Amino acid sequence: MSASKGEKIVVTVLFVLIGLPPGLCSLLEMPVALRSLWNAPRAYSGLAPLVGVLSLIGFAIFELMLWLLIRAWRRE
Q: What is the pTM of this model?
């Protein structure tokens, strides 16, 4: 079963709008959070679990949207 051209466009737009921002944010926020934890561990100790969970949620959204994108473009 082949994916229609419209479905490919919709999935690509959804990936760019919904999947890419959380993926980039989770990729970029983790080193910043770890550096701030290293410099001031007492001030940011409560934020470490929150940053970790949000980063994992963002990465999961990115992975789901990437899977949908690959699936739509690989259908034959």
A: 0.76
